[in-house]
Amino acid sequence: MAIDLSPQLAKKLYGGNGGSYHAWSPSELPMLREGNIGASKLALQKNGFALPRYSDSSKVAYVLQGTGVVGIVLPESEEKVVAIKKGDALALPFGVVTWWYNKEDTELVVLFLGDTSKAHKAGEFTDFYLTGSNGIFTGFSTEFVGRAWDLKENEVKTLVGNQSAKGIVKLEGNITIPEPKPDHRDGMALNCLEAALDVDIKDGGRVVVLNTKNLPLVGEVGLGADLVRLDGGAMCSPGFSCDSALQVTYIVRGSGRVQVVGVDGKRVLETTVKAGNLFIVPRFYVVSKIADPEGLEWFSIISTPNPIFTHLAGSFSVWKALSPTVLQAAFNVDSGVEQLFRSKRTADAIFFPPPK
């Protein structure tokens, strides 16, 4: 049976006046399970605080909107308190504990994409909360908590019972969250909207690629990632991952048309994508996108830290490498048609501006 590749929106799992948590379900987007990929979003309102947690999956986080603060504790390390803003990407390896806070009026929205191959459930993140109504303290008996932290019974009951919320709270009163430290940001976050461009095509598009050079923790996560901004009417050349990597794409802004072609030359997806959609391109399938007039922006992870892509148009396409007579035989055309085909798209580009 063919797998449904239709783009999907996230569903709310829980939340309150402090914010909400949303995720994509493998039951609605089967490629999540097939590809062992998880996807979720955290949205925090003013004074919203996401309680400390760790996950069963390594992830890449991308700030879609707003500004805020994240606390990060890597195994056997001190807490890093990092200021984050729209466009920031962070790599979160296994074992990292994080908390998130928003003190501004604008909602803080963070996207998480990651590898669930070692998770409890394929295609889903499972978070383990340190505190709250479903925190780890609630599962241990008073005796165990008391002996582990040398607390009296009444002290244990206060410590464990006072936080009745699940996952996200709204901070009230005089609680002051630690201020971010500029040096803590080094090596922890990269702003994709300000970073040096890896690809820049006039009237076409721009790409920033996350790698071990500009964000070293990417190597520990085991995923590649990029931010692509396609200008209005421009096209992203048909291409595929030639190293068996899956590509998971979240539409950040705008809208556009997408076509995916798979086995036996069958078009397996033709749709219009818009902001908030998530879709997955299977291994070796060919994908191409054309932006609507307002442009199209997407953030992707690729299931390998150093992905290799082959594009089928432009000066470096496979067509340019093949011999003229091979092309004639392959397409069953004469030399005139072959030369016409070869003469097109001679520029070194993966993005093509709209026709004039």
UniProtKB/TrEMBL annotation:
Family of the protein in this entry: Belongs to the 11S seed storage protein (globulins) family.
Name by which UniProt lists this protein: Cupin type-1 domain-containing protein
Domain Cupin type-1: from-to ranges: 3-157, 195-339
One Pfam family hit: Cupin_1
Keywords, in A-Z order: Disulfide bond, Seed storage protein, Storage protein
InterPro entries attached to this UniProt entry: 11S_seedstore_pln, Cupin_1, RmlC-like_jellyroll, RmlC_Cupin_sf, Seed_Storage-Functional
A GO molecular function held by the record: nutrient reservoir activity
SUPFAM superfamilies documented for this protein: RmlC-like cupins
